[in-house]
Amino acid sequence: MITSRQDGYELSTDPDRLDVGLVHHWLSTDAFWALGRSRDAVERSVRHSLNFAAYDVAGCQVAYARVVTDWATFAWLCDVYVVSGHRGKGLGTWLARAARDHLAPYRLKRILLSTRDAHEVYAKAGFTPFPNPECLMISSPAQ
Known about the structure:
alpha+beta, six-stranded mixed beta sheet, 24% strand, globular
């Protein structure tokens, strides 16, 4: 899937176009939720996910998001990252909408995400607070 905006940004799910080294750098050095994530972990996560990347008018990758899904009932939108010089231009919302719209034909029961500080970004893409957060549980065996 490739789509463009009037301001020249392009969004693609083409895995061959994705710069995994750049994604690793962004996540492991600048994303609070993924600081220190290994290159191997990023490579494996990319390989087993649906990936979205945004590119500027020069073709440079400037944003990334991935979706983990079973393609039947559930998806998890995660690792949404926009390079600092391109923030505030709606790229995060655009990535979230693109992921939601891409998954729409599968009629999933829910697409979940977690955010500490970007609620308004995702609200613009149709996400709302989880109705019963007390129902959620987590296991973190890698910690």
